[in-house]
Amino acid sequence: MTVQGRSGRRSQTARSRVSRRAAQPRPLDHYDREAHAGSRAVADGFLVRRAVMIGGSLVALLAGATAVYVRVYHQVKSDISTALYALGGTALVSVVVAVVQHRRQVLADSETQNNARVDGATQHDVRADPMPEATVQPSEVEDEPEPTSSAWTPVVLDGTTSAGRAPWHLPTGVVPNGLAADAVRLGSLDVRAVSIVGASHRCEEPAVPRQDAYALARSADGQYLVVAVADGVANSKRSDLGARVAVSAAVRLLVRHLDGGGTAGTIEPSTVFRAVAGEMLGTGRSRELDASEIASVLIVAVIPTVAAGGQYEIWTARVGDCSIWSLNGHWTQLTGSAKSGLDKNLLTAALPHDPDQAEVRMLQLTPDSVLAVMSDGVGDTLSDVQGANTYFAREWGGKVPTLPQFIHTVSYDAPGQLDDRTVVVVWPRIRSGTGQAPR
User: Fold this and answer.
1) 149-428 has which fold?
2) What is this structure's pTM?
């Protein structure tokens, strides 16, 4: 109780000191001096108008009295009395004009002072804040870059599109966010992931939900990173739901296999993709949706977090047109092939219909390489857009980007590239021959 009492007295004393400091007069700053000068100008104008009214009144009274005296007592009608009447009338008119102007100026000054009083009260409320002000060194402010709106202007690749510059709209119902992103580190790997609703979907009114999805997971011992990317089939009613179920089911099944003592080399792709298809169908039935309304393509990758023998042995499998690329100076497609033909969006396989058509590959990633797992929204850009390969090699070939930088890189605008975009990029942190993590 004694400690509390002392604390209370100290707090009260401190508040009193702060109150006295807040109550002390402050020197006029730049804006106060301007306001003070304006007040003096207003006061000078007031005195001039008052002098005109008083002087005019005296002249009018004197002229009128003299004219009456001349006419009444001396019975003189001359030019002198006429001139006196004219002088008195002119003085009266001047007084009336001065009175009207004075009244108008008083009303205007009153309104200006009220506005200034409101602004001044707001400023003094801020200045009288009893919290102690933080001391900021000038160098701290000068070294900090100023935010600019142009920093988030989409990068243009080979031309702009009206949809790419259009504002984002909201879809109806409870659907995935238009943007999802992650930045993680696991073992010797740095990972960045982003999924962005495409321009053709977000600019509609109402918007179409993001139909891409991704999921990241790890084995319990941290020895493996599991990546899944799905792209809902565009003409399916709830392909967004199908994509989300596909990636979540896939990583859960693969992690269960790894945590149960399995390795990447012992994964049975048919078992995994059939189980994923089964979960998609079950979710669809629970919502009265058939298989064609939740269709999606899927790619998965199991990546060791530590290189063995100078490289990473990666297990990957896919159904559909998602792909994996590697960067060694330029980007090279490792799974699938560039689309061709009149209809580049034609699919030969998708879940939940074709779980047995999974294409399996074992890939090798050196510590000097970068790996990217992506939907066709990014893969088509790499294949079809002039300058895109160079652009992504420059952005992702050096230092690992921050998450905002990574999102900005994928937020490009390019002709014909209006689909949802999802990409998971993996950087080994230890370069071969160095034993160090320069990133």
Assistant:
1) Phosphatase 2c; domain 1 (3.60.40)
2) 0.65
